[in-house]
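Table S2 (continued). Query chain:
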Amino acid sequence: MLLSTSMNWFAKVYGDCGAIRMFAASGFDAVDYTMGYMTDPEHPINGDNWYALAREIRQTADECGIKINQAHAPYPVMDPDDPVYTERMIPIIRRCFEVAEVLGIETMIIHPINWYFEDDIRIRVNTEYFRSIEYLCEKHGVKAALENIFRRKDGKFVVGTCGNPDLFMHLLDTLGDRHFTGCLDTGHCKLMGYSAADVLRKMGGKRITALHVHDNDGLEDLHSLPFLFDTDWTEICNALRDINYSGHLTFEADRCFKQMPSSLHAQACRYMCETGRTLIKMIEG
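Corresponding output:
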């Protein structure tokens, strides 16, 4: 099991290559390449020079001896109330897959469409959307991983698309496992009132092959490191072992470093790495 982390915030501060070097120096095996900035059509990686930029990132990772195990696509992938945005996202998502292939990425996390509250509409709309990008998975050798996400209603967190494990399973089983898989976000489980351990055991290791590991206080989506709140990480690790989880342990927990002075960033990365090694030992028993 590789230990990986999202590049999100660190890449904004140090750039993609700088973040990769920092994580490699801290002891990580891999990184999750965050593609959120690609919603900007003017970003260079959406331009004609995209291949050279992607090769530079891949070369940096190779030189550092670190793998780019997964990616996070920009979101939302569509907006039914904004057809211009929806149309603009089509070539951007296509470019995400092209970049993923160059970077050697195996799995790309894609937020399911989350605009609707009715479960039958959610299933239909998401089935149609993910079927429409299935050819990209095939062409570029990348699996699309749907993630359990929440919604806000009247100021409170409520179950979003793939938040209910039964509906999550139904959608994945409808799509099939050749090109699609599931990413369980531990922090999102907590906000929606689900035990991540229970969801893992219910869905099993054939459906859940990717993780976003982070914690919160049950009130806000804090993206903090494990062991800072009351989540039972022993139970989550036991569940991952019980289902023979075959993926990697990937943090999405860098938001808690935003307020730190830059002099602490390298130490914070090492602390995050040691936290991940502890979790992997707990999973392996």
